[in-house]
Amino acid sequence: MSLRVNFYLESRNGNETNLPINMLVWFDWYEGLEGKKQPRLKYYTGYRIDSSKWDKNKQEVKKNNTNKNGLTSSHINGELVKYRGYASTVYQKYKTLEKTLTIQLFRDEIKKLDPTKEDSVVKSDNDSIKRYFDDYKDAKVSKVSISMMKQINVTFKHFTDFIGKDENLNSVTKDTIEEFESYLLKNKGKNTTIANLKRLRAFFRHAEENEWLTAPNPFKRFKIDAEVYGEPIALKKEEFEIICNKELSSVKLDRVRDLFVFQCCIGCRVSDLLKLTADNIDGNTVRSIHNKTKKNKVVTIVPLNQKAQRILKKYKNTGEILPFLSSDKYNDYIKELFTCCELDRTELRLNPRTNKEEVIKLKEVASSHTARKTFTSLLYPYAKDEVIKSMTGHAPTRDPFGRYHPITLEDKIEAVNHI
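The structure assignment produced for this chain is given below.
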């Protein structure tokens, strides 16, 4: 049986000042240890020091130094000796009793001996959910796209709004996740809830891999349902032409029509549409790196057809390449445009919030994403999947891409006529 205790400074994003002094405890009085890693406890001592004042070899503060709070090296080093003693006391207790000692038990026993255990500063610096969220985001910011980073931030805000920023990371259980799921479903659709849970699960996997967790991963026995997607609703060719040719008395709707038709012609996401500049226009093509796929650094090139070229020419001398507006207003005005064009076709679809069937009118659900779906749908009979994906920014192997190819009644009639 053995016990090993080390002290080290926790470096954070290259910062070298006022770093937390952590205690690492390796121990082997652990049931079922054979064939497993030796348990390791990470414990924040409540003290901080600059890295220049820390002796890495001796694992103590260098003599004749003080920290930001004015505590001397002799005081801090004396407290570290106490923490080493706490670890030894707990270890010997469980060894003598021949009782199983887990990481969580070890932590709880040390806290009983630690007079600073009720210190709120220690609590927030030690295991607060916000601290680990921040560390996770720092690790991911250079590895994921801008849009994914925004989604991660949204998920973390939902979770901290639900549980509290200062909640201990290791207090999160399977029951907590189930309650969080119910919390989301009160105001979010089923698929949106699933997406948030998947992002949170990725965080806890990272926490487990980096040994931030001393309690079981709350997602270990929590099953996340699969997303259920209905068939995307796209414009038919004749409906698209109605919008293109409609006489509009409203200047606002005319500008919205131009923006919508241009998006239908290039098939991009609204976030990519609204950030286009003259630099993205290269002759009769538009070139961009889509926000959602920036981590792959693939330049998307889309030829501009005559409709798209006419729209760009219309705004050439106005100081803007397109009549941009906010995405929220854009979606609202698209519905007004569809109403003005009397696009009353009804469709049976799955409600994204309830996952139940419903009959809706096209003008009630039209949005910027309708333009992207229309681009793909209208191209499908004339172009290979790979060609379309190269323009939309979809991953070459992405399965949901098939949803953008609606099977029409005409397709079915043609098929059965072969019988």
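Interim note for the steering committee: Residues 73-97 form the longest helix (25 residues). The chain has three domains: 3-117, 129-209, 237-416.
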